[in-house]
Design brief:
By secondary structure, the chain is an alpha+beta fold. About 30% of the residues lie in helices and about 20% in strands. InterPro entries: DUF3298 (IPR021729), Lysozyme_Inhibitor_LprI (IPR052755), PdaC/RsiV-like_sf (IPR037126).
């Protein structure tokens, strides 16, 4: 039976809020391969120092309960990092990390520092983070001594509001549900089957707050990454979650547009804009090729006062090397299909 390690967020498992071990330590007391790697490798030592500062900043100003949750979260991440950078998804108890393992640790540390920057005050609301991780051996690579992909690693990172008011309770529940929809590893907290977690790929889902539209709308961007072991490259995407606080739900199309022909009007406008902004790179031929994409609210960025930004993913309208293009349709070109609630939702009043 293959080994498997699941590291779930404290918010789902009610991990006790006990003090976490310090991220930095006295190197004269280094005892484990992990500790020796931090002390012996300059790049990793620098990444460790940055992580310690990032974590201290990320927990500043939080309530006692939220600090406890983030400390438990950081312990979970430390366990994940150690397992994700080995050949068997187990914590190393002897020996030393090789160059690949060390590079893996540097990448994990620096990525975590960047993620922790999302624990901050935004427009009067204090957000913090909760995460979940899974690490398991790749069954297709375990017997290949030359494999670079012996371990599959999965992560999901979600924002949470640090408050005991109804808004925080509702928002945190909404985000937990959305995270579970986007990552299989969260389902394991409820007794899900480990066989549903892909052992031959690495995945990442990071949900972070993008903007607060007034007092009513909280918009998050969702960054996903998937790498199938052995593939030429990974694939990624950018999308949006819009939470409407007064109705405790996500945005739907009728909040922004109305009328029997709103979809066709939006598609035609998007097609014209796509040709104007990206004509020489397009690999789609008609408006019908983008029809299902542009009417989806998860593709809408509402942050621009001048126009609706629509997000495309790699491969959808152009070559992978072109990235994930966007278009911006001036709002005045969409006046004919404007819903009565559009301004209320966009500006959050």
């Amino acid at each position: 039976m293959s080994s498997f390690r699941l590291v779930l967020p404290a918010i789902l498992l009610a991990v006790a809020a006990v003090p976490a071990s310090a991220a930095s330590f006295d190197c004269t007391k280094a005892a484990t391969p992990f500790e020796h790697a931090i002390c012996d490798m300059p790049d990793l030592s620098a990444a460790d120092d940055l992580l310690a500062k990032s974590f201290a900043t990320a927990t500043g100003g939080l309530t006692k309960g939220a600090v406890g949750l983030m400390r438990a979260d950081q312990r979970n991440w430390l366990d994940y990092a150690q397992r994700a950078c080995t050949d068997d998804a187990e914590v190393m108890t002897s020996g030393r990390y090789d160059d690949n393992g060390a590079s893996c640790l540097v990448e994990k540390f620096n990525t975590r520092s960047g993620v922790l920057e999302q624990s901050r005050m935004i427009s009067g609301h204090r957000f913090f983070l909760q995460s979940a991780y899974a690490v398991l051996p790749d069954p297709n690579e375990a017997d290949n001594p030359d494999s670079y992909w012996k371990v599959a690693s999965h992560e999901v990172v979600m924002p949470q509001l640090d408050s005991d008011d109804p808004l925080a309770e509702a928002f945190n529940r909404f985000i937990a549900e959305m995270g579970a929809n986007k990552s299989d590893i969260l389902s394991l907290a409820g007794g899900g089957d480990i066989d549903d977690v892909d052992g031959s790929s690495d995945t990442s889902v990071i949900i972070k707050v993008k903007e607060l539209g007034g007092t009513n709308r909280i918009t998050m961007d969702v960054s996903t990454y998937w790498y199938g072991h052995g593939a030429a490259h990974g694939n990624w995407s950018v999308s949006y979650l819009h939470y409407l606080a007064d109705q405790d739900r996500g945005l739907i199309a009728s909040d922004i547009f109305a009328g029997d022909d709103w979809a066709s009007t939006l598609v035609d406008a998007a097609w014209a804009e796509l040709q104007a902004e990206h004509a020489e790179w397009l690999q789609v031929e008609t408006a019908g090729d983008i029809a299902e994409i542009v009417v989806e609210p998860s593709r809408w960025d509402l942050s621009n006062d001048h126009g609706l930004i629509i997000q495309f993913q790699p491969y959808e309208v152009s070559a992978y090397a072109y990235g994930a293009p966007t278009i911006t349709i001036p709002w005045d070109k969409l006046d004919a299909i404007k819903a009565e609630t559009q301004d209320e939702v966009r500006y959050g009043y």
